Queue: 3 jobs
Job 1
Amino acid sequence: MSRIATRFASLKGHGRTALIPFVTAGDPHPATTVPLMHAMVAAGADLIELGVPFSDPMADGPVIQRATERALAQGVSLHEVLSIVRAFRVGDPDTPVVLMGYLNPIEVMGYESFAAEAAAAGVDGALVVDVPPEESTDLVAALRGHGLDLVYLLAPTSTDARIRRIGEVASGFVYYVSVKGVTGAGSLDTDAVAARVETIKSLISLPVGVGFGIKDAATAARVAAVADAVIVGSALVSRIEELEQTPESIPGVIGDFLATLRVAIDAADRG
């Protein structure tokens, strides 16, 4: 059983919802990321989604696009991201780490090389935005060959047939995009989210995380009442951007914010 599956099984056994923060690796400086990852775990993060900087982040809104630009300006490549995960693992052998990004850097490295190096660094899975299930056979084979999960996005417009198809290739968990559009866009309709999560759970057996549009403790709590995981990204990255000139303060500020989400999630009514 993968670290991701083990973590979700443990959370389910304790009646808890996962908190999954997203940050871009190397933003605003590579030296900031490992201390930030440890601070997020200390604040209650159950898994970490680590963005791989890419020059054309099509699924991301302006906040995360700017984070990617800052990281790329620091020379952060996929190899550097793996080095960051390796350094994180020195102090944390347990918290699952999922890389979120796009196919091009993986293709440049090669599927088998990427899977082998990611596993050796301590990565647990990948969410590759621009790989549809119909084109994922080789990537899935490489990842599974090294014990890594492939996480997929589901959209509000995903049909039942599409959800089932993704359920055939995805592992670890699936990520339901709660609003139409890019990250950081739109407002959250939690009633609609609840209905869609119920449908997804009736079609596939994987845990369902919900992200996009979670900005504060109140929205996190509402999502926690219906989902297996609450995923928060732009709300963190925007705070990192504000602190670009004082990077030493980033772990503490982000940790404090995540702690408020953790309290709200744990208090959510799941009845």
Job 2
Amino acid sequence: MTNSDLKGIYSALLSSINEDGSLNEAGLRQIIRHNIDKMKIDGLYVGGSSGENFLMDTDMKKKIFDIAKDEVGNQVKLIAQVGGTNVYESMDLAQYATNLGYDAISAVTPFYYQYSFEEIKEYYQMIVDSCDNRLLIYSVPSLTGVNINVGDFKELFKIKNIIGVKFTAPDFFLLERLRKACPDVLIFSGFDEMLLPAVVNGVDGAIGSTFNVNGKNARKIFDLAKSNKIEEARKTQHETNDLIEAILENGLYPTLKELLKLEGVNAGFNRRPMASADHSQVENAKTIYKNLLK
């Protein structure tokens, strides 16, 4: 069995939140449609960091899974991020998303407590045992503090139905070693600003938060690099990184939502304790939109 059907460009789906912290369903549907109709992405990564997942209770996470599947149908691929600090919730969410018809699930490495590798391995075993679905490890050491080496990755890939990794790390030596050691697993790049070198190192796709507003250029970089048109790809990566740099300086998630609003999408607020854009950030987002997106 191959997993080539999952390859491609995925937006790490943002969530539209009302000012009182509740979910804005209409706004979420608009974000989904924008990604499919305008960004032309291959799939959506639902319930990740960009979706403010770790600020939500189980019911809200399930509601987002419901809405995304209902809005998407079978138009693009769907991957449900179910991981967190409570493996029993992760198992519940994994089964829930599988029953909805998600194409795969993903799980961030367990964080906060300093787990041994055996504990991390057991966590993933419990999740895949809870459902009949494919799983991508979500490795993001800068946020979790969990570093996985090539040997440990290889051990995790032996677990039935673990098919790959969302690799969100700037360690390209590790990425190259992992690609060489595991040629048959799926590797997705998770750092938008490093998409070109990731593609050169053989990733199968990319999952990114800025793809919500810059998905077309992400695909352009990916396709050019795969076609060995490196100079053209570098030019687009430079342009993309000008945008990313401006977004990061202004505040990642608030700015992405403001940019979506300028596209006519009701992206809402951020869920507390994450702050929403203040007046200065809103004005800066307008400048970013005018100079770097339009």
Job 3
Amino acid sequence: MNWITDYVPPKIKSFFQRREMPENLWHKCDSCGQMLFHRDLAEALNVCTSCGHHMAITPRDRFRALFDHGAFAEIAVPEPLADPLHFRDEKRYTDRMKDARRKTGEHEAMLVAKGNIFGLTTICAGQDFSFMGGSMGMHVGNALLAAADAAVAARAPLVVFTAAGGARMQEGILSLMQMPRTTIAVAQLRDAGLPFVVVLTNPTTGGVTASYAMLGDVHIAEPDALICFAGPRVIEQTIRETLPEGFQRSEYLLDHGMIDRVVKRGEMREELGRILRLLMGLPPAVHGELPPPPAGGKPAAAAAQAGTSGPAAPAGGPAPKPEAL
């Protein structure tokens, strides 16, 4: 054997050998089964380009598409006790939290941010269903209170994107206590005369639906989102009757007066911009125009933190004249 037989045949074989394709290049639509290229899916904000099915999206990706120039600053949330009940089932609660943080890259199930929507300073909070089902624990209660405090301090509206399977069982009664706590957060906004808009995404269920998700001044839902307290299977087993088609979905709730609008994800930014400016007593933004991006080459989040947010209505006085957008 010489170097030719040792080197040339393996080289030729590797040249013609089929290369492994990364698993995350294509995603299968849960509704129609269409295979979607990951870049096309990301550009469509995780909406199927074939059937229009709205897949899950992280709060961080949602905020990048929602705020002007993708600029936003995260708002700090007080850290609750790590494992107040020392809960354990198949795994310890602390181990489940570590797994969820490693999987999602996020610290908890809700992200709170401040930014501009068509020049209007806005506080947004978004739940991440991939983090333990977006379950409402003490951190989510703290996050809603922090978001309400930030909105009152900035005289800005609050928008919450809900996506949850309900309360977090590992925190027991402490998770259920977040229902009245978040109701108090909404009451703070009411007392301050500030708008509270809820965007219901798939799924929004359990104690989240029974508290802040249904306390908005305006309720918007994404298409075909499941919105309920108890799921349709539980109801069917309880009443022993077949439920109407589309029961507890966005369109059904719209037809029965439970929500105000059903808006596609790609149109959400413009819809929220119109509604928020209307509720804040501001004239509509000029369509298709935005304020200039942050100057000085600052990163998006840093620029938002530095105070690039647009005007908000002052307490007890007329709204300032907005900049041309």
